[in-house]
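Minutes, project check-in
Item: structure for the 56-residue chain
Input as provided by the requester:
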Amino acid sequence: MAHKISEDCAACGTCISECPVGAIAEGDIYSIDPAICIDCGTCAGVCPMGAIAPEE
């Protein structure tokens, strides 16, 4: 199951360099491509806003 970035995202960029498969795209609120995400959780672990969680 892929992770998802909520509206709490501050677009700080911390998660982008941590994603091992490049599934995160920049924007006003960043997004994760579920077709690429391998559900490793690394992005969620580094997000200072707590804006990343497994998709339900």
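Outcome recorded: Strands lie at 3-5, 24-25, 31-32, 52-54.
No further action items on this chain.
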